[in-house]
Amino acid sequence: MSRNAVGQVKNRAPAPIQISAEQIIREAADRQEAHVLDPVTKIHDAEEYQSYLASRRKHFEDNIRYRREQIGIWVKYARFEEDNKEFERVRSVFERALEVDHRSAELWLRYAEFEMRNEFVNRARNVLDRAVQILPRVDFLWYKYAYMEEMVGDAEKCREVFERWMSWCPDDGAWLSYARFEVRCAKASVSEGEQPNMDRATEVMKRYVNEYPCAKSFLKLGKWAEHEAKDIPLARRVYESALMELEPEEVRQARIFKQFAAFEERQGEYERARVIYQHAIKLLNLGERATRMKDDDEELTDNERYRRDELYKAYVAFEKKHGQKDGIENVILTKQRAEYNKRIQDDPLDYDGWFEFAKLEEDHGDTAAVRDVYERAVANIPPAEEKQYWKRYIYLWIYYAVFEELQTGDLERASKIYDACLSIIPHKKFSFSKIWIYAAKLHVRRKDLTTARKLLGRAIGMCGKEKIFIEYIALELTLGEIDRCRALYNKYLQMMPHNCKAWSRYADLERSVGETERCRALYELAVSQAALDMPELLWKGYIDFEIEEGEGSKARALYERLLERTGHVKVWISFAQFEGTEIGKGVEEARNIFQRAYDRLKEEGLKEERVLLLDAWRMFEKTKGDTSGVSSVESKMPRRIKKKRMQIDEETGAELGWEEYFDYHFPDDEGAATNNLKILEMAAKWKQAQANANDSDSDDSDSESD
């Protein structure tokens, strides 16, 4: 068997019995075994107590004998002895454990915590002293040692512990813990309302910076001097020293300039902060990073790039709060231009980027810059001659022309832009009607109707889209050129004889100018077409036209012609409602139409359509009929019954499951069913009689033979 065949599922059909998630959870809960509690040992006298201790100690000793290296067993053993107040035994257990693994920092910690928990301070001090001598690089042992000395109120010993720790050159957290300890001591030594002396803490932080001369330590010291020591001159000296004493790679970190400038801003030194920001931008080339990356910038980490971006944002925010309007706009505009230039250089076909870039230049009113952006944008022609790639590109030309027309008022230049756009579109494969229409409307606004008509004529010849016909006809209709509109409609219908909307608009035009016969002839010609996209719209318009003209007989004839083509229930309802109007034959004729429709739909077996018809008929009787008519219609109303049927997949023929649907039982259909049942019953009785007669004949023939 191959490897791929092992995990394949052969039968993908659903299981006959489906199991829910709730059922799985319930079964899991039912199958859980009952939790067995450990037996409770009751001790009645000292002898039983000593026996219990001996058994437990034997148990621990056996575990230690087999698993000597597992520190957890030693800790549990010591905890057991501690619970029984056998402190010497606890120390013995820990000492034995340390002989096994004296490099276990956790074991030393548990030993010291035991001594502290039981208030053996000197013993705990001895344990921690031994621990830090053996494991001087384990920080939490030093933390525990210093914390214990501080808790017992011996500040000198705590300071001595920190000094011993600092001699091992620990990380930043150790120095900060030492400084915070000195702050707490300074605050505890003064009365309320007095300013504590932070000299010791500040000296610790200075030693930390000397030990680790990097950007991180300088920034921590500057923040410390500002917020903790409240020494503003010291903080300023620290930031200045960071810029002068650190290595060039350290100085080029954006966070130094950001924190320094923020410090000066908090102190109200806005000019100093502005100088720092400007120096950082010049040193780090923040204005150029968006357009071109230098060699040293290519080696930056993502974190440093993010920090430089944040530095520039901080500078922008600073100028917004404390700068002049021109300076703020210049900063923001330069940054945005750089970003857009980089974006369109990476992807010249990013038309959304070109739109945003052009909008940026338009908002600042520089006409030459806007034209330059649009010219660069429209030069990036889509590589493939497919319409989906040109849809966004075309709007660059449109926006360009609209800008020239509305912002600069240069209609001649806008017209040339449309002409240039039309010259590059491959009209043999596809075209854009909006370009033709916008160009023609621009000529109309220039009062050059001749050029606009020629342009739309070219559009019809090269493109021939419906939207162009509609706009051209609307233009001529606005100018009152009815003959031109007729000529355009004739051309329109020659190219699209199936378009019902075109026939309807043409007929409405003739009717609006009083040409009733031409309108009727158009409708007749339209309904005689072999193929129409929306014939119901055309027939409805034709019938409404005859009704509005007061030609009831012609409207009735149209209904009859339409019913010969289609027996749709809505046509029957409309016909019956028409007969009930003033130009119709009246209520009785409307009832006859409803009855004809009902009989026709009944013959075709259309139940839902019969229900719609009966609803419309009942509403008609309520508004224009009488009570007897309403009761007659309601007697025909069906009963709705819910049924089930099997769903079958049309492709595979497989059963998909049962579905519910509603069926209608009409009273007249039930009568027919009853008659059919009676006929079947009579046929069964006749068959039984024939069988009995055959039996009697066979008996007579047997007796004669005997």
From TrEMBL:
<dbReference type="InterPro" id="IPR011990">
    <property type="entry name" value="TPR-like_helical_dom_sf"/>
</dbReference>
<keyword id="KW-0508">mRNA splicing</keyword>
<comment type="function">
    <text>Involved in pre-mRNA splicing and cell cycle progression. Required for the spliceosome assembly and initiation of the DNA replication.</text>
</comment>
<dbReference type="InterPro" id="IPR045075">
    <property type="entry name" value="Syf1-like"/>
</dbReference>
<feature type="domain" description="Pre-mRNA-splicing factor Syf1-like N-terminal HAT-repeats">
    <location>
        <begin position="338"/>
        <end position="460"/>
    </location>
</feature>
<dbReference type="InterPro" id="IPR055433">
    <property type="entry name" value="HAT_Syf1-like_N"/>
</dbReference>
<dbReference type="InterPro" id="IPR003107">
    <property type="entry name" value="HAT"/>
</dbReference>
<dbReference type="GO" id="GO:0071011">
    <property type="term" value="C:precatalytic spliceosome"/>
</dbReference>
<keyword id="KW-0677">Repeat</keyword>
<dbReference type="GO" id="GO:0071014">
    <property type="term" value="C:post-mRNA release spliceosomal complex"/>
</dbReference>
<dbReference type="InterPro" id="IPR059164">
    <property type="entry name" value="HAT_PRP39_C"/>
</dbReference>
<dbReference type="Pfam" id="PF23240">
    <property type="entry name" value="HAT_PRP39_N"/>
</dbReference>
<comment type="similarity">
    <text>Belongs to the crooked-neck family.</text>
</comment>
<dbReference type="GO" id="GO:0000245">
    <property type="term" value="P:spliceosomal complex assembly"/>
</dbReference>
<keyword id="KW-0539">Nucleus</keyword>
<dbReference type="GO" id="GO:0071007">
    <property type="term" value="C:U2-type catalytic step 2 spliceosome"/>
</dbReference>
<dbReference type="Pfam" id="PF23241">
    <property type="entry name" value="HAT_PRP39_C"/>
</dbReference>
<dbReference type="GO" id="GO:0000974">
    <property type="term" value="C:Prp19 complex"/>
</dbReference>
<protein>
    <recommendedName>
        <fullName>Pre-mRNA-splicing factor Syf1-like N-terminal HAT-repeats domain-containing protein</fullName>
    </recommendedName>
</protein>
<dbReference type="Pfam" id="PF23233">
    <property type="entry name" value="HAT_Syf1_CNRKL1_N"/>
</dbReference>
<keyword id="KW-0507">mRNA processing</keyword>
<keyword id="KW-0747">Spliceosome</keyword>
